[in-house]
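Troubleshooting entry. Yesterday's outputs looked truncated, so today I'm pasting the complete records for two proteins to confirm everything comes through intact. If either block looks cut off, that's the bug. Protein one:
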Amino acid sequence: MPVSRKQVGATGAQTVTISFAGFNRAWAAWIANRLERRGVTVVQQRWNPPVEIPLEESLRDLTLARGRVLVVLSDWYFQLGPRSHDEWNRALRSEVAPDPDRFAAVCVTTSALPGATSAFGAADLTNVGAEEAERRLLVRLGLPTDPLPDADTSPGPRFPSDTPQVWGGVPRRNIRFTGREQLLTDAYRELQESGPGAGVVTLHGMSGVGKTQLAAEYVYRFGSEYDVVWWVPADRRALYRQKLAELAPELGLATGAEYGERLRAVRDSLRRGDPHAHWLLVLDGADEPDQIWDLVPTGPGHVLITSRNPEWSEHNSNLVEVPVYRRDESVAFIRRRAPRLTPAEADQLAEALEDLPLLLDQTAGWLNDSDLSVDEYIELLEGGIDQDVVKVSADFPLAFQTAWSILLNKLRDTVPESVDLLRLCSFFAPGSIPVRLLKDMPPGDLPEQVAGLMNDPLLWNKAIGQLRQYSVVRLESHESVEDAASSGESIYMHRMVHQIVGHDMSEENRQEFIDVVRRALAAADPGRPTDTRLWPAYAEITPHLKWADVLKSTDPAVQTLVLNCLRYMYLSGEYRAGIKLGERALAAWREMFGENHSRIWDLSYHYANVLRAVGDYAGTEAIERAAVEHLRAERGTEDLEHLRAATGLAADLRGLGRYDEALEISSWVLAGYHDLLGDQDSRTLNAQNNLAMTLRLLGRYAESLELNGRTLDARRQLLRQRHTWTLFSEIHYSTDLRLLGRYNEALSLQNQSVQVHRRVLGSDNPQTLRAEHNLALCHYRNGDRAKAANLFTRVLERCERVLGDSDPLTMMFAAGQSCFAREHGNIDQARAISEKVVSGYADMLGEEHPYAAGSRGNHALILRNVGERDHAHVLLEEALATMTRAVGENHPWTLGCAINASALRNLVGDPEAAAALTDSVITRAVEVLGRTHPLTLSARIAHAADLRGLRDRQKAEKIENEALEDLASTQGAQHVHTVSARSRNRPYWDFEPLTI
């Protein structure tokens, strides 16, 4: 290796111009940093010589640069154009060999290069570490190799041979990647210039333009600038959540095995930038922003998205549009893919294929191996194909349809098994396809033509290799090529390829292949959708149900899979997906089985659950009542399916505000389960839980507490501490404690339970949101307004993102946020939120529902605070009358409305009516809730104020003093309620919608 060259800058300023192929940008950045630290001026110049200019002339232009020219030698440097090795050898002998001191080089590849590159005297930087590579670079340029002072050893770009500390999911680098330099530069600039927390760029464009390949190339070119690079398929929300959660152990986060706990930890880690602030997350195929935008991490790192949907601009993302290739890029790519074609032929082919990268890739690959000329191929394209054979969406270019017919014929002639594998894959969802589910099946369950393929590693590798060669699929395993080919865990199929293959088969083959995929999915069913640890498996399975057309299967195992997936969607909060699946399943199964088959009742129960979750109580009542009546007539009352349907009906009645009817049904359902299964079966405990909810809605808080306490104890023993039902019981028990005024106990239990909810279910699960909302109310009632304010806001924002503005849970949280903002925040915000809640409950449940009445009563308090007393008075009196009709005069909700109404009666000049009302409330509250319940104490304090208004000071003082003593003994002398009452602030009551 030469060591006696003239030193850089020996005859002038120290300057080096680095000439590099864009593919090797990371090497150029690292070399520049190493030289600049030693005082060398560096100019980086990307090498991309125009094909129409002779190579000698392009090399000659390099000598116009200041200082020495350092060439980064790699396969890519010589492929640009592309040029043959003979052309390169002639040019190097002509321009480099005569002036060796003008050029220097480093070699970053082990591939064979043109022989004349020896003229560069290149330093070999392959297979060495960063320190040795730097030493070789400096020696080659004649620079001192002495260590720098400590002050000058600031970190720079990562050594290109060192991958980021965390690296996962990234597709292999496409060695045929061509052009797109400006797009890569634009994406890099947009991310680098974004502010903290705003580093989100979306590469958007039509199918087949190469968005995924562009994102992968971005990762390889700029990945050395990050500590974490994580690639996530984002075409389906559930799968995205699963893959993002898998980052937790890679970040070294101390979490349990539960999926929700890992997801929460990852998002929190990325947000804080701990342990890594320089992270890059790639969301591939995120075509539905509304499905996942709320899960896009914020923090100091960067997010790169690929999508066909430009609506990402509405979600704080900068857009970079990805068009089809420019013609020069098409020509360069075709010639790299098919070297036998001339530039003119490549241009001709690009014109015919409309410069669409995916189609160019697939066509040029096999055309290079074919004897067919470009003219003959284009003639085939222009001749069209039989549309009965290949039917493709009009969204795809006509040329794509024809080209695919030709390509499939080529595959049939070479490795026919590869076509059968493609056909099987077309019954999974496009994108990532878990072929391991097929390989895990017994050979006897597979069609004869693919059984050998799945069980013969050599044949499997041959078929996969052929498909990869023509860019029909890519391997999703991201280890070594050898490991990936043999493991075959999953492959990636582009949606355009997927659609073409799905239409190109006989009906006989279609039925055979689709049955195989259905059986594979059924075999992968974990069987326990209530177990959060198994949710990642369901997240992987559910996207494929539609494509395998599972609803037409008569296989009981496949039908059970559908029910389990529907149950998973309900429990995990994927309500919209669950409603779509349930609706389609009900129509399909009614046609298959008739109206009264047992499968229909199974399905109706799960479908009603997801409908009820979004507030369609009238719809679910019709479904469940039909089931109850039929099953009672057919099987009698002591039947488990009848009891299950009745359980759903009781829940519907609770949602409709018909609490007495719900109580009657819930009571005999519990008795029925107890007689049939005993008191320790999980179904009996569920019935006990439901009865307690009904009692709470009836205002019978003490009875609800006693029943929920027994349920919680039993679930902790029968199930596990972190089971979703055990955690749900903790919410219920804590809620009852709070409603009874036992605030410290409620807070202690709910605070601990929230932490477990976040770990087990994830921070965005509806049940976690319920737990956090109850914790906010516990803090509020206990006087910690700061913590309450933060939780109220966060919970409402997350629920709006995850479930939408009109979801029952969102409205429940909005009601709490509005009440808090009225007293301790922004009155205008409180009014705006309250107006939405009032109209939302009226639309969903009707004006006479207790939730509609209660929300109007809350709104009246806002009107009172802004000075609209008369309007507030009328609204409160109407709310009181409606609530009385709905739940009776002794219900705590009616008593609370009455306390508020009495205050407005005073304000409008009717103190006698106010005092009479609070006097009546005290009598009823003592009977229903007890003398020291917070609502009773509020009524006593309010009545004392009314008596003072009537100048009955002696009686007022007596009642007030007794109430203050009871407040101090139950809540403490310094509790906010006690302090407020002592200051003679008139108490008010907030209506709180409860879980049904």
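Protein two, checking that the full record survives here as well:
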Amino acid sequence: MTALIVCHFVLAAFARPLVRALGRRAFVVLALPPAAATVWAATQWNTAASGSAVTWTWRWMPAYDVTVALRFDALAELMVLLAAGIGTLVLLYCASYFTDGTPQLAGFAGNLLAFAGAMLALVLADDLISLYVFWELTTVFSFLLIGYDSEQKHSRRSALQALTVTTLGGLAMLVGFLIIGQSAGTYRISAILADPPRAGLAVSVAVVLILCGALSKSAIWPFSLWLPNAMAAPTPVSAYLHAAAMVKAGVYLVARLAPGFADVPVWRPVVIVLGAATMLLGGWRALRLNDLKLVLAYGTVSQLGFLTLLAGTGNRDTALAAAVMILGHALFKAPLFLVTGIVDHAAGTRDLRRLSGVGRALPHVCTVAVLAAASMAALPPLLGFAAKEAAFDALLHGSTADRWALGITVAGSALTVAYTLRFVWGAFFRKPGAEDTPVHRVGWAFLAPPALLAVCGLVLGPGVGWTDRLFGAYADAFPPSAHPYHLALWHGFGTALLLSAVATAGGVLLFTGHTTVTRLSRRIAWPTADSVFGHLLLGLERFSLQLTGFVQRGSLSVYLATTLLVMLAGQLTVLGVDRPWRGAVAPRVWDVPLQGAVALLTCAAALCCLTVRRRMKAVVLAGLTGYGAALLFVVQGGPDLALTQFCVETVSMIVFVLVLRRMPVHFQESVSTWRRAVRIPVALAAAATLGVVVWVASAARTGAPAGAAMVEEVSHHGLKDVVATILVDLRSWDTMGESAVLAAAAVGVTSLIYLHRRTEGSSLREEVRGRTAWSLTAPGMTGLPHGDEGAPERGWLAAGSTLAPEHRSIVFEVVARLLFHPVLVLSVYLLFCAENMPGGGFVAGLVAGLALITRYLAGGRFELAEAAPLQPGLFTGLGLFLSTGVALLGLADGTVLHAWTHHGRLPLIGEYHIGTPVLFDFGVYLLVLGVVLDIVRALGAKIDRQIERAAAEQAAAAGTPAPPRPAPGTEGTPG
């Protein structure tokens, strides 16, 4: 089972080269994984029909009881055959539906196959969390497939609407899963159904939340608005997702959970009422539409309501009827969608008012459509008739609520017959006064997939008894009935047959009076759900704009004060009510007097920030508070933390200075005396409250500190540095997540600077001869040497020729050049010594970044480009790739981020060992280096370019030529 699922995603990843090489014929290759899944499922028929199950379990994180479990039973057999079998035919159909020149064909092909894999995994999942993951994957891939034609506004809106509705339902469902899992003590679906948690308030809430997810996925009212709009997708998507796969996911979930939760009080009212309402509303709406796909779409909504009603009623016979109806619906609705695509392809339109005489021009297509439509209308001897008979009989012999539901389903079946006749008449019959629609010939490969499905519906009508054993194995999970129903085409004359005849006659009457019905339907029509959704979105957008305008005043001080006041109010309320300090250990003023001195100086620097008006002074004072914190770490005996804090504070101050070049010298926000009098108490109160909270939280510890256990664990592996080991081994999940967040934040910030391109381009050498930010001389300066007259005799920097003489410092250049390589070596040392001494990938990356920053400060952006010719994204991406690769390597031993260690011996060096935590830390090193380099290029080199551009424009406006520049290479070469 696992290999089949993985094959879908692997081959989907290669869809682009396949489509590039084979064109539309690549769909034939892409159909192999679902075809293999279909064959495998067929070989397991007897196993599933006997009531047995094929299971597979992978204990992903045993310590947290996180497993990935798959289970193949009778219901899964049915769903796998539908998802994989129809998926195979739809992929083959795509080979004829599209052309080699269809835009974005590769992405569509990959997404369609990946969706098939996600759907296959969804119906096999035996774990609530795994099911949710694959559930959301189908949502994401359906969003991409519906929005395939992204240049069309309607496609984008329809995709976003489907994503919004199904994702909100999915989130509600996830909360329900968590409640059920906690109540049952397990997330294994089979175990929960074998011993369901006792019905109570929590379980009832969970059931409602789960049903929200299931009903939104299957487009049950009031969530049915997204499915008709999803017809903006290509026809193969409609045939697969919206007839056989995605919309069946919600029905499948209801059918899967019904044996365990149908007796929960809220289950049946929700499922029966909403299912019945959806059946009527969808069928009634389909009677007045003229687009063939929309007629089928609203018919699908109606049928999904019927399926949900049957699957959720919660007795054996309705469950049996639901299973056969799921099969029958897929075998008639999928070919009808595919036939609609053929008609649209051949005639160029789906408007039934413009189609005329297509049945005579395309007799084989018409035959296939009539077979599928007859099954949808439940005419004998097709499978739809046998399924409808089973449903009527099950509801007839059920409870009072079931018999009420029976009356609604008979009315809904009449609507089904009416819109089926409307579809066949509109697509293939001649219209009075209309000329025959010109069509082109349809190849056999194009017609074969819908024809095969329609023939299956015809064969399985008389042969429906072949499925009784399989579907009965699923239905036997419910309490047995007094007279169990068995599937057969003919059960003799009875009430069920009479009701079928009534439904058929009613449908014929509705169709014959379609003009009156259409006029009446439009007269009493409510506002469409789509328009309601649009007005809700518009109202939400307007409210958001008004709220944003009210809250976002553009003052950082107001934002910060608001945040601090809210924090103060919440914390002081909790402190005042709970009084958690009672019984807490009194805090010590300091461990050693030196801590008090450092803390006093740090607080003094922080308080001075409140009074300065120059930005540079504020940056320096804020930096001093950071250095003060680092000194406290030193005094406390935390060299790793101190080293990291020093490096972070240094890089932060340099970044601040680079940014300040483009900002005014003084703070421009005018602050009145009373505002200043308010701000200072707020800041001091926030600091004091936070200090008290930290003390209370620390004093409230009841468990034993984990430090001793971590020290013992680290020493057990022959290591000494506990902090570094925690970061790259014991808590490496946190480190990997924080690394990804750091990379995303850096990319986001620097992208605000790089509005167009993130590269320096290929013209660096040519730009050396022009005016640069580091060669600009302030106007009015006289008596200063120019050119080579004042330049040093020896060039210590590779880009020294780009510097104006008055901007150069020979001492700084020499120091930068001499220290650059030793600092890089120091960073490598800090990386590899972290097992036993202070260091690590993070601080090592910062040190390497400081080396590059020094080269930039000494020689400008060209010097930075010479020192680091590679793009920052390469370092960042390679670091993430390496860390993630090391994490996934642990799967070889059964868990992510499992640590491996290799011991060996080298000549001259002797004994050595290397572990995967070092490789993981090296990925962090590269990532941090890339982030620092990216920030320096954005806030340093990019701002340099802006300064140069502004100076050039100013010079051009003044008509003054650029000052003479020395030619590159005239200063000598670096030693």
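Both blocks look complete. Sanity check on protein two: The two ends are 65 Å apart (CA to CA).
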